[in-house]
Amino acid sequence: MTLILLVGMLAIDATHFTETGVYQPLRLSEALVSEDGSLYVLAFPEATIRFYGPDGTLRKTIGGKGEGPGEFIYPDQMWVQDRQLYVFDVNNGQISLFDEKGKFVKRWSAPNRGLELIKVRSGWVYGTWQNFGEAVEKNELVWADETFETVTTLCTVADVGNDQGFSVTNNGTESIGVYNPIRTRPRIVPSTDGTRIYLTDVHDLKIQVIDLDQKKIVQTIQHKVKRIPFDEDWAEAKFKENTEGRHSASTKWTKIYPEQFPAIRSLTLAPDGNLIVDRWRGKPDDTNWFLTLTPKGEVVKKEWNGERLKRQVGVHGEFAYVTYWDTEAEEAAVARVPRGKVDAWIAAHPVEYDGPTGRTMSFDH
């Protein structure tokens, strides 16, 4: 479906991908653009993936709640490679493969359920510390082939920080909660061609560059920056906001508050191959303090639209795919917009949403 929108005196053609089944704003990881311009949208609560053609037509709904072939419980990550869709179910640690028409092909097991997998041309990259918080013998970044039969250590990671969020467990006699207000885990970002990995430090502005052909660190990018003291007042306010009336008053909480914010908040790969580092300002709700680096680590003066980085999920030809919130339908959607008009389109379509966000998962260990 195509709709003509007026932004000032500028008419922008936008193809819309609607009826996604997602009732909170989409994360970047929940929408993927394939090599032919088709689009996949992950609806986590119902464990389905909407498969759209480039014209916005819904071709197929993939998956559904269950444990049978082509079904999921918690489909947490997805990737497109050679027009094939890979989906990782964090509930059972299995990867399902679908062909270019959305037909189920096969599935196989990853090493464990808690992985944050990175799909690369030659297989997978992941951290061994990604194991639902359970201690491992050694924290390593590793490469594995497609089926995880061959695994090679890329580097050892001294400090792996913590995941953001709330977790509550019950040992039979009491509820124990852990609260970490910010993510301090390393960021793992692949290069556009999938031949290199960028691994961030959990403290300093330091990025290790790993060559996947050589299977080793080939460069270290590092810049001195002043670390900012952590804002405990903000963390306490967020804790109260997210626990009041939602958790038992008898829950015993451990709060993980670092002394300082990490230097690196997030790492994004720009379309031109440069690295975009978002840094902590000291006020966690104040984002978009960007530093742009070349692949060699040189600082480049460049301005970025923070909203575009949050909402542009991919490009195909002369078009970019941008998430938005359909206020009338109260549902997330995606628009395909001419690349040169994305900023104007985003400005005309701010995300106005004040409902709940995040995902809730329950596991039996």
TrEMBL record:
Pfam families: DUF5128
InterPro entries from the UniProt entry: 6-blade_b-propeller_TolB-like
Superkingdom of origin: Bacteria
Name by which UniProt lists this protein: 6-bladed beta-propeller
